[in-house]
């Protein structure tokens, strides 16, 4: 043995080396093992972090409820555009002809036409439209285009055909006038 080295000192030295190695083998909790520090774990979610999103959600819900209530309270006719009112009036006149409904046809017609001597009587209206229906079928309107509104007067191009003669498309320019707030089909 070498002088100054005793077996107990060798054992102590080996123990110290082994303990140092085992300390190095254990990862440091603040170290990833490659020398870079580990980030702190994320904080637990808090309702304060979600507050801006909850406020935004509340605003969206209030706006949606307001829009829904306005649609329920306001009649459908008030929500329609002027062009839609004009198209609706034209559709009513053609639907009355298809349904052979003289009262509805009168309701869809302007006062000037109603007072005209050429306006058909109920029997003439029914006879003419029944004959047309028997020969050609219903009137079909696939499109109403070119709606132009000038105050209380509007014009539109009505594209139509009979359902039994769908290859014979017609285009008729219609005049529609506003009387007492309602749009009516008018020949003049």
From TrEMBL:
Name of the protein described by the UniProt record: DUF4878 domain-containing protein
Alphabetic keyword roster: Membrane, Transmembrane, Transmembrane helix
The UniProt record lists the keyword Transmembrane helix: yes
Biased composition (Basic and acidic residues): 22-34
Taxonomy, superkingdom: Bacteria
InterPro entries: NTF2-like_dom_sf (IPR032710)
Region Disordered, residue ranges: 1-44
Chain ranges passing through the membrane: 50-73
Record organism: Gordonia insulae
């Amino acid at each position: 043995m070498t002088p100054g080295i005793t077996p107990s000192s060798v054992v102590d030295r080996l123990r110290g080396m082994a303990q140092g190695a085992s300390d190095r083998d254990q990862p440091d909790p603040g170290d990833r093992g490659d020398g870079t520090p580990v980030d702190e774990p994320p904080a637990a979610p808090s309702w304060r972090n979600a507050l801006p999103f909850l406020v935004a959600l509340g605003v969206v819900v209030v706006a949606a409820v307001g829009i829904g209530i306005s649609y329920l309270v306001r009649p459908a006719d008030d929500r329609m555009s002027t062009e839609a009112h004009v198209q609706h009036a034209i559709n009513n006149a053609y639907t009355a002809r298809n349904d052979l409904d003289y009262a509805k046809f009168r309701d869809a017609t302007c006062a000037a036409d109603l007072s005209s001597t050429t306006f058909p009587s109920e029997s003439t209206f029914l006879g003419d439209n029944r004959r047309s229906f028997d020969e050609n079928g219903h009137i079909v309107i696939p499109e109403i285009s070119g709606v132009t509104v000038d105050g209380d007067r509007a014009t539109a191009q009505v594209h139509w055909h009979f359902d039994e003669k769908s290859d014979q498309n017609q285009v008729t320019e219609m005049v529609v006038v506003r009387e007492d707030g309602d749009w009516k089909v008018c020949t003049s």
